[in-house]
Amino acid sequence: MLQVAHVEEKLLESGPFLGMAQGVQTDRVTLLSFDINRKVLQMGTGTPGFVTFAIWEPNVLFSWRNVKMQSGMIGVLWNKDHQSITGSQFSGIPISIEENYFNNLCREKGYQELANKIKKSEVLYVSELELKKIRRLVRFIIQDNSLDEISLKRLIEGELLDQFIDCLGSALPAKSELDLTHSKMNLIMDYIHDNISNLSSLNQVSKGTHIPERTIRRLINKKFQVSPKQYLNKLRLNEVRKGLILDRRNSSIFQVASDYNFWHMGQFSKDYKNLFGELPSKTIRNRSGE
User: Fold this and answer.
1) Nearest to residue 36, comparing CAs of 2, 65, 7?
2) Each residue of 249-281: pLDDT tens digit?
3) Is there a contact between 44 and 171 (Cβ–Cβ < 8 Å)?
4) Which of 32, 98, 162, 245 could form an S-S bond across to 23 if both were Cys, CB 3.0 to 4.6 Å?
């Protein structure tokens, strides 16, 4: 059963009324898509414990709590009475997020002040370009009936909310993109270096930092001009080299390499030589002065 705001619609335009609504949800997020063919007044209340963002297709009349909405604007409904006027052929895609979950996401992503700002706002001004991406992704999620429960949750609570909170964050003039990038990058780097011996995939970094793989991939690629896979591989190779040089147990190359999740020794040796210009065996010989 979808958790949605309680809304009553009053028709303000003559003619047959046609409305269509679709929706999907996880435990913490509800997505809706609805289309209305006539001008109506909508009144009601938000879903208890949730914050709802009213996203709409521009170029159609939309008045939100007495504010005439324009391109790049989002309505906010958080424990308040709902009132809006929607013109004929209106399309809306409200996103409702569980309040505590939303607060935690904001903090994790470096937007500590975002939740408090929204509580005081009825309307947010954001990037219309980013809103277009959000609309497309929401409609894809709702309309794709092939998604299983796990994929649906990952897509909604991962990719969609990552994009959406970044979009909302752009409404905060005091928080620069440079500050946000620096905060995320520090979190990613700290996690990688603290867990390098156990890392073999980007998914592990994403789970450990609660930053979507897409964001991690973009930040690492921008900073280092290599893919995250290449970056992690190079870090692990460096740790193996350090282990071979400092090893006092006379461990085998395989033992040291496997400590950093290298199991295919042929590929490992090739990658090692490409990075350091010598085979692991040569590193050991140099260490022992042979």
Assistant:
1) 7
2) 777 889 899 988 888 899 999 998 888 888 999
3) no
4) 32
d(CA 28, CA 183): 25
CATH superfamily of 176-290: Homeodomain-like (1.10.10.60)
DSSP 7-50: EEEEE-S-S---EEEEEEE-SSEEEEEEEESS-EEEEEEPPTTE
Q: How many CA atoms lie within 13 A of 119 on its CB side?
A: 10
Which residues are paired to 10 by β-bridges?
A: 41
pTM above 0.70, yes or no: no
Where are the domains positioned within the chain?
6-169, 176-290
Q: What's the longest Cα–Cα distance across the chain?
A: 93
Helix (H, G, I), strand (E, B) or coil at 76: strand
**pLDDT tens digits, 99-133:** 999 999 988 888 878 888 888 888 888 888 889 99
